[in-house]
Amino acid sequence: MPRVVVVSPPFASHATPLSVLATALAAEGADVFFACAPEFAGLARGDGVTFVPLTVTRNANTGVAEATRQPAEEAARLREFLEATRAGAVPTLLTQARHRRADMLADPEGVLNALRGLHERLRPHWYVTDQLGFAVTLALHCMGVPYATFCPGHPGYLPADPDAYFGVPYDWPASLRPSPADAGLLLGAARRNDTAFTEAFHDFATRHAPSAPAPGRAFALCSPHAVVHAYPEFSWLPAPPPGPVRLFADHLAAPPAPLDAAWSARLDALRRHARRIVLVAFGTFLSARHDVLRAVAEGVLGGLPDTAVIVAAGERAGALADLAGDRAVVVPSVPQQALLEHVDVMVHHGGGNSFTECLRAGVPALVLPFSSDQFAVARDAECAGTGVVADPNALSASAVPALLEALPGDARAHAAWFAARLRTRGPRWAAGELLRVMGERTGPAGRRGRASLPAE
Predict the structure, then answer these.
(1) What is the pTM of this model?
(2) Domains along the chain with CATH numbers
(3) At 12, is the secondary structure helix, strand, or coil?
(4) Of 279, 398, 430, 434, which residue is 20 to 30 A from 231 by alpha carbon distance?
(5) Distance CA 225, CA 148 (A)
(6) Helix, strand or coil for residue 15?
(7) What is the CA angle 151-156-157, rounded to 5?
(8) 309: phi > 0 → left, psi -120 to 50 → alpha, else beta; which?
(9) Terminal CA-to-CA distance of the chain, rounded, Å?
(10) pLDDT tens digit sequence for 302-312
(11) 439: region left, alpha or beta (phi > 0 left; psi from -120 to 50 alpha)
């Protein structure tokens, strides 16, 4: 059987779908090692999956970013990022562009050495690595070992053509489209990052693997064999460049576990006072924007008397505790996938996991994007007809009822159509296809032999 190492950065929103893919690969017959920071050992579940401790970046997010213990410098960058989200889309993306080198390529030599040691111990046939783990991708490229790329968010994370840049949405939702001046500032910052990262990749590869092919454009570096997208293959997305096989898995979510007794009781209590339930969750980072969480909850409670609300508030649950009542539940975290089987609408931040989980469950959404690829994801929600988009920083409680009522009448029908489609793919489909492609692309060694580590 093929031996595969799945390498994940220490971020819950990335490690969780990668662990689901690891479990699916094992179920399809592979011998799988899940390599991540020690805090994520619990994600290595199922027969055939073994956990290997491996830390590939200094910053981390074990579930709620504000609650994760990390170095002071990383915590300061998180605070700066969260503050930038209050200034709007372009200031946030500019802040992220400025942080990118420290966040994503902090210690490439250390990562290369760690992976070389891991490779000598385990001798896998090939690897799977997160596309945003740039140091890991660069190390695997220099090592000359076969690997597949996992793209955790919007497919635009991998630039599709020379005029596309990492950190610039392929398109914007109508309510957040920047001015030409702001768009120019963002494009300039992205181009500078593109040049700087590409030069850094080239210099690193020249020092550590002078006989290897040039890595080329840094943000476009990925497996020459296969890229797994935890995303649907929408017809309006820019066509990817030729090269690796693109596997659009639609989602990488494990089947939702049944709600426990406590959550079932909460839902029953809410249904006694409301006809509809809205789930509000902004992922593992942006629950810190409790001002927006409050605006949504107060808008539902004050303007939609037949509607209840469940709020995932992270570390800010205490600050929002006054909202709790007959029609409101406020908790630090929620079993999101399980709840999506029981709610009527979700309000989310445009994270790739939340978007695809809503599609999988057939739940329409109000999307309030703050950062990263969320603007591109929000645009796709508009194009798919499964949601409406608003600017979170311009949101008032009084506007929320109209936005929720503005969800197109056929939004649930569109979401249900996607739900039926997404159930034909998912983790097992992705694992089976990935094993097939990597076996075909890497030859007999990819299926039976051991990949050898070239001398430096």
Answers:
(1) 0.90
(2) 3-71+98-252+426-447 (3.40.50.2000), 261-422 (3.40.50.2000)
(3) helix
(4) 279
(5) 6
(6) helix
(7) 50
(8) beta
(9) 28
(10) 999 999 999 99
(11) alpha
